[in-house]
Amino acid sequence: MMTKETREKGIDEFDYSDKTLRQEYEKKWEVIKILKSHYVAKENSKIILISARDFIVGKVRTTADAASYFYVFQQYGCFSKYALLKDGFTYAFVNFNKDKLFETFQNIEKNYKRFAEAYQKTHPEHPKPEPFDWKSVGQKNLLLAQSIIEITINYFELSSLNRLTDDNIIPFNKFEKEQIDRDDVYRVLNRIPNIQVKNDTLFRLLKVTQKSMRSSNNYVPEGLHSEQELRDFIYLKISSLEGLREINKLIDEKLNTNIASVANKNDKNVIEIQHADVRPFCVIDGKWGYLKFNKYGKKIKISGSGSQPFRLMECLTEPFGTAKMVDTVFEAIREGVKHKNKSGVYSSGIDKAKKITLIEFVIKEIQKGNKLQNKLEFKWDELKTKVWLVYMGQSIAE
Predict the structure, then answer these.
(1) How many structural domains compose the chain?
(2) Residue that is last in its domain, among 250, 277, 292
(3) What are the pLDDT digits (tens) for 13-32?
(4) Which structural domain range is residue 327 located in?
(5) What is the rounded distance in angstroms from the CA atom of residue 33 to the CA atom of residue 29?
(6) Distance between CA atoms of 321 and 376, rounded to whole angstroms?
(7) pTM for this one?
(8) Which of 69, 73, 66, 30 is nearest to 51 (CA)?
(9) Which of 169, 171, 192 is nearest to 180 (CA)?
(10) 329: Cβ–Cβ under 8 A, 6 or more apart, which residues?
């Protein structure tokens, strides 16, 4: 630990090339951030309780490591007392001094940044790692990654992020029901800027604690997560969805480029895309019908499972890209639908022109709200005897 004399030195008096001091400030910076965030959330509380596991972040590997700095911050006047509660995993901090806490935070932040700058200047042989190159990833893995990213974005857009500590969880079954493996979720999310999957770290902490307490594997100490919880949930360190959105946009551009390149090749390659991983298909979940662009893609709600729009999409995606006769398509959308509705009268003797009009009406219903995400379009032959679905930019059907 730093001596009182060292602590009271001006900010320019440190040897910023000192490795030991740099490592100390990296840990102090993590601990003071946690203390400040909890104080801001509970500013009027005389006693603030903080779980020990909240301090396991960044360079701070153990609760003992974090606790070694509590005395230092007490000496700085950030709070009057602190103690570990009987459960062994919760710390109580008494009478925070706001002015001292914020002053200490600012001083540590300044020194932390100066140590980081000095380190980068003296270690040019250790440049900052390059961001993961998503453009080098194959199409199948891009589709998998995009599905994982979109599931994560959709979940946190509805449930909102915990921005106090940046600790957030998402149920694993959100991925499991899309047949996505746990390891794939970990690998993809750990490659997103400013996101860290904490499950492995929390599992190791649980096992180390159980071993130190000589307890059984079934005993879960207060403040830690059980093995079942670590299987049921993905624990993330994430403060913003922007990194996810940026990578998702990049992947989308890459996939659209792949599709366009295939569509612009000769007829054989256009037909081959129908059997690739990007082939759209329809699924029913409960009373709703959905479109999926690929096995790992998110479900896009079209309409009710027995409705005309969904029956039309089912017809034209089985198989995708195959031209269907007007009579075939009309029979598909007529099945299970009342003989009269706002679109017209459905009877066995209806003429071809009326059938085409009714099919076009259903197509317009599907196109509302950009359900096809500017990726698919409907095509007719010159005489309007056949209709089919293609990717944007394609025109040839099987």
Answers:
(1) 3
(2) 250
(3) 567 777 788 888 888 888 99
(4) 265-391
(5) 6
(6) 10
(7) 0.50
(8) 66
(9) 171
(10) 312, 315, 316, 359, 387
Residues 146 and 173 placed together within one structural domain of the fold: yes
Q: What pLDDT, in 10s, does the model give residues 155-180?
A: 998 887 877 667 889 999 989 888 88
Nearest Cα neighbor of 374 from 393, 359, 387, 361 is 393
Q: What is the CATH number of the domain that holds 367?
A: 1.10.10
CA dihedral 19, 22, 28, 32 (to 10 degrees): -170
Round to whole Å and give the CA distance between 329 and 316.
8
Q: Which two tokens stand for residue 315?
A: 């017809």
Q: Are 379 and 395 in contact (CB under 8 A)?
A: yes
Q: How far apart are CA 42 and CA 52, in angstroms?
A: 17
Please name which of 101, 114, 105 lies closest in space to residue 21, comparing C-alpha atoms: 114
φ/ψ (deg, to 5) at 19: -65, -40
Which regions of 286-337 does DSSP assign to beta strands (E)?
A: 288-292, 300-304, 324-325
Other C-beta atoms closer than 10 Å to the C-beta of 170 total 19
Among 347, 322, 258, 324, residue whose Cα is nearest residue 294: 258
